[in-house]
Amino acid sequence: xxxxxxxxxxxxxxxxxxxxxxxxxxxxxxxxxxxxxxxxxxxxxxxxxxxxxxxxxxxxxxxxxxxxxxxxxxxxxxxxxxxxxxxxxxxxxxxxxxxxxxxxxxxxxxxxxxxxxxxxxxxxxxxxxxxxxxxxxxxxxxxxxxxxxxxxxxxxxxxxxxxxxxxxxxxxxxxxxxxxxxxxxxxxxxxxxxxxxxxxxxxxxxxxxxxxxxxxxxxxxxxxxxxxxxxxxxxxxxxxxxxxxxxxxxxxxxxxxxxx
Length: 260
What we know:
Helices cover 25% and strands 36% of the residues. The protein is an alpha/beta fold. The chain has two domains: 11-149 and 212-259, Rossmann fold, CATH 3.40.50.150; 152-211, N-terminal domain of TfIIb. A seven-stranded mixed β-sheet has the order 4-3-2-5-6-12-11. The chain is globular.
């Protein structure tokens, strides 16, 4: 028998971590390469806003970086800190709002790579987040920000499905766009996760809201935080040798922002 649950994916950190953490290597290699190429200072301390389960922070800590993060979901933060503790690292993830926070100590780099930024529902929240990030970075530090833009001259990706497995746990994920409210600039996404273990099957049905950005709207937002300079743009292929030029058909982007 399959149990069907309508709930928040973020309340199931084990499944979330598998869904978004199974392909960590490409992101990790890209981020660390960006630190070397673009940072105006040595990168030792790293922060991730809306870090979730810390899928990348965990790998960064193992590589010798000093890491920290925040997230609104207490279950995800508990999962992240337990993983840190198990591996002998400080429990440096805290419950917090990525649009309103202040770090006690500036960091050398930060990242947010899988559209989490788009959870910020208003222009005010988005600008506040970017300002918080600028204030949190030391001079020459990097903020690497990845998101999907809304292309204005091409079809966009409206659905995606993928599979992940770890030991006896397998998860099939299907995500699709339910539509965009052009007045509020909010996209409604459906999410269906099929979970399989040796003893049960479970379906989690969720809905997420993402703020939409065209290339022009994102450029306008970035100008409102003059402490940043854009030093590179890439896509989700995470190939440092293949920078992209943003145009009307651009959808996935990774901005490399450096603190002046």
